[in-house]
Write a structure and sequence with these properties.
about 220 residues; alpha/beta; Rossmann fold; 7-stranded mixed sheet; two-stranded antiparallel ribbon; 6 helices; binds S-adenosyl-L-homocysteine; methyltransferase; PCMT; S-adenosyl-L-methionine; cytoplasm
Length: about 220
C-alpha cells in the first residue's frame, strides 16, 4: 500500500471513530472499530471508502452495513465474554468479526454461498477462530445450536421472526431491523422474559430484506 493511502486511511479512521463516539458508542466498541480492518471486508473498488460512515455494496447485490449501525447494534446487544451469539445475514462478515471480539462464539447464517465462502476466507486471514458459518435460511434460526444468549438480525423482517425468539435463552436479547421491505424500518431490541416479550423501538433505519430460502444464484 502506498504511503499516501495509509495516511488517508488513518485520517478517515480517526474521523469515523470521533463520529461514532459523539453518537454515543462506548470506548470498548470504538476500539474494536478502530482495529478491525474494514478494508478487508469491502470490495477492492471501494477500499478507499472503507472508513466512511456509509453502507457499501458487496457481492450478490447485498451491502456491508454502515459502521455506526454495526457499532450501535453491537452496543444494544450488551455482550459478555461467555455468550453464544447468533447472527442472521453474514454478508461480508464484518459485523460477525466485531461481535466475535466481545463474546465466546458467533454462529452466523447467510443465504448466498459466495458470501459465506468469502467471509470464511476473511476470518481465516484475520485469524478469527470463534465464528461458525452456515449456508442456510437464517429466518429459521439454528436449532442444533440453540438456545442463544443474543441474536442479531442484519436483514429486515416485517415482524420479529418467532423461530428466532424461540431460540433465545430466558432473559436473552434480540436486536434487528423490523418493518416493511420498501419503507422505513425500526431497529428494535426484544428481551425474552419469563412473563413475555419486551420490545423497544429504537431507531429508524433501512436494511436489505430478510428473504426466505437459500439463494440459487451465487
Ligand atoms: N452483517 C453483514 C450485513 C449483510 S446485509 C455485514 O456485516 O456485512 C444482510 C445479509 O443478510 C445479506 O448478505 C443477505 O443475503 C442476508 N440474508 C437475507 N435474508 C437471509 C436469510 N433468510 N438467511 C440468511 N441470510 C439472509
Amino acid at each position: 500500500m502506498a504511503h499516501s493511502d495509509m495516511d488517508g486511511d488513518s485520517a478517515q479512521k480517526i474521523a469515523l471513530v470521533m463520529e461514532l463516539r459523539s453518537g454515543g458508542i462506548d470506548h470498548k466498541i470504538l476500539s474494536i472499530i478502530e482495529t478491525m480492518p474494514r478494508e478487508v471486508f469491502v470490495p477492492p473498488l471501494f477500499r478507499n471508502r472503507a472508513y466512511e460512515n456509509a453502507a457499501l455494496p458487496i457481492a450478490s447485490g447485498q451491502t456491508i452495513s454502515q459502521p455506526y449501525i454495526v457499532a450501535y447494534m453491537t452496543q444494544l446487544l450488551d455482550l459478555g465474554p461467555r455468550m453464544k451469539v447468533l447472527e442472521i445475514g453474514t454478508g461480508s462478515g464484518y459485523q460477525a468479526a466485531v461481535l466475535a471480539r466481545l463474546c465466546r462464539r458467533v454462529y452466523t447464517i447467510e443465504r448466498y454461498r459466495t458470501l459465506i465462502r468469502d467471509a470464511e476466507m476473511r476470518f481465516a486471514t484475520l485469524n478469527i477462530h470463534n465464528i461458525t458459518t452456515r449456508f442456510a435460511d437464517g429466518s429459521k434460526g439454528w436449532q442444533e445450536q440453540a438456545p442463544f444468549d443474543r441474536i442479531l438480525m442484519t436483514a429486515a423482517a416485517p415482524e420479529v421472526p418467532e423461530a428466532l425468539v424461540d431460540q433465545l435463552k430466558d432473559d436473552g436479547v434480540l436486536v434487528g431491523p423490523i418493518g416493511p421491505e420498501s419503507a422505513e424500518q425500526m431497529i428494535v431490541r426484544v428481551r425474552k422474559t419469563s412473563t413475555g416479550i419486551l420490545r423497544e423501538d429504537l431507531m429508524v433505519t433501512r436494511f436489505v430484506p430478510l428473504v426466505a430460502g437459500v439463494a440459487r444464484e451465487v
